[in-house]
Fold this protein.
Amino acid sequence: MTTAPSRPPADNTPAPAGLRPLGRSLDPIAGESLDGYLLRLSCRLRISPVRLARLAGCVRGAGPAVIRRRLLLDIDAQRFARATRLSVSEASSLTVASWADRYPPLARSRAGSPQPIDGWAFSISHRYCPDCLAGDGSPVQQQYGGTWQKIWHLPIIFTCPRHQRFLREDCPQPHPGSQPVWRPPAWLLIAFPSAVGLHPAQCRRPLGIGGHRSACGIRLDEPGEDRLPRPSQRILDAQQALLALLSPQHPAQDAARTFTDLRVISALLCRSWPLGQDLMDPPLAAAVSGHVRQLNTGFHLAMDRQPDSLLATAGLLTAAIAVRNTADLQGTLAHHVQPRTGISVQAWTRVLGRHQSACSPALREAAVPLAAGFRHAHRSRELRC
């Protein structure tokens, strides 16, 4: 059944105190994210997403009307399943938790970890493919639109391979007087969750102030062209390689090491910029240039920080894959570890030090001696000064 009008609870476990199964539910769609499911079901029930989240046990108490992105990692799947008449497996499938063993930023961000949410756990922007949101023509997708995919929450996803386009990050409708690219806070799962009556594919950008706010409401599922270029085959190939690492068919340990390698190499590319610009398409190189300028402002050079720009992320990861796949990895890394700007090399060696134990043996063997050599040379220069 596609819309589950009166789906019975999936098990006979007694409901938690104060939690009753909803009168109506929806079957999840393959690849769907928790926020997409909440948007579809709240639209069907004609209530706000945050009201639904409270009824489903995702949000407790009478605090601010927010739904946090952390739910994608540590939702109480049994509680949510009972409320929404899903199986625990179906409820868990709406989260990104199944990738934690192969994508290290998620593992470092799970409940109980001493670390806050890792900067590469979730994309800074809320991304989507308008062609995917347009749906597949099935009755339920004609009514509620296509799937908000959980994969879009990961910063390593920047294109839709099926439609061969970059993901969008913002409403296609210009909003005079506001910042060029509007983004809800990265820790929010759903923007303006108290708004009622919106279709899942409508923009939830709040307009107005205080209690008189309304949502933008522009449809995000209008395919059309936008201001982003079309991704080249090199970019699409890089995206497919990253997606393959998330597949259950790929060994989890190897995937985790590869993702860590790419993070360390991306930081080195930022440190040595513009040396790596020939490894990416010009529009992506321009975006990376902006990211590097941003990194070089202030007192701390956080070389492994996630770029604000989707295009910069695509450029760095595409180039990092090329570097990692080179026949002479140590020689390629040495080309970028040049003692021209000691401060930024030190910043990169700190990144390497933090992630060294999680890197692949090949990267450790190539990078650790280079970092040690730089530190020795840097100390020698300091003693001579």
Q: What stands out?
A: The chain has 15 helices and four strands. The first strand starts at residue 159 and ends at 160.
